[in-house]
Amino acid sequence: MYLSEWRKRKGDIGGIRMRALRRRLQLIFQDPYESLNPKQSVYEIVSEPLLVNRVTQSPEETTSAVLSALRDAGLRPAEEFVFRFPHELSGGQRQRVSIAAALVLEPDFIVADEPVSMLDVSIRTGILQLMMDLRKSRGLTYLFITHDLGLAWIIADRIAVMYLGKIVEIGTAEQVIRQPQHPYTRALISVVPSPDPRKRVERVIVKGERPDAANIPAGCRSHPRCPMAFEACGWDAEEVAEELQVLQAAGRLPDVGMIMAQGERAIEILPAPGKSPTDARSALEAVLAEERNARLALKAIQGVRVRDDRIILMLHAGSAPRLTRLAPEHSVACHLITPPSTASVAVTA
After folding, report:
1. Residue-range definition of the domain harbouring residue 292
2. Which among 54, 186, 255, 272 has most CB atoms closer than 10 A?
3. pLDDT, tens only, 216-247
């Protein structure tokens, strides 16, 4: 979003000097125990961005900028901290040093990568309050990365929910939390603790293991674990074949022999010894009808037919859903979502 706005103001990003861009974009790391160089003093850590970017012209100017950043980060009196080393600081003080190092270049945009997740609960509130105060006093924009949706609701203007590196829902904090549309967003919100013990929320537990990020599933990335997945979500032949093999191992497919995936959208099945392809097909179709709603991958099967001495299963073609705009500022990437029609909007208006 920030780079998009920059392009509008400045033209193609390829023509922008990266040094100027780095000065306006800064990062607060997650782990203050690993991100700070133990061999550098606080002064050296905070002043390094100034020296690398050649911002200051004299040692006095550098010292003044470092002290100002430390004060803004809540380390007062700043003069008592400049010559300390990371091992002489508490976890909260270390994270404040990281914040000061990000502030010293006076950026417009800061990426905060779970800045309080490694801190003791007792000091998280202080760090978050500091960041919110800095947002107002310095006019900062944060990209706040977190696994805590309750925290995101409190501090964020807009929330983007990601799954395997792709945004599945984005909108204002109120839209995403109050009116979640994507099944994954609903599952995340359902397990956020409520301070009201009388409020009972049905929890949606996402089952199964998260897929390997190096081997992204075809179609919708969340379909292997989505409780509402259906034909268009994109199961491939390997996934459906594995589900059939589980049924076979459980004794549900006694008339079926070898099950083999053929490409991405076809599965070849041999009848069990002594069984005809027609009888095996009939038995298979009966089991598929019974298990279809319990084992969602079976919904991907489009048709069952006999070819020579074997059974061929053809699968529905799946696709990755695109972000669909449901309302101003609220978009969702899910095949279950149908964008409101122009006609219905006109009638409502």
Report:
1. 235-315
2. 255
3. 888 999 999 998 999 889 999 999 999 999 99
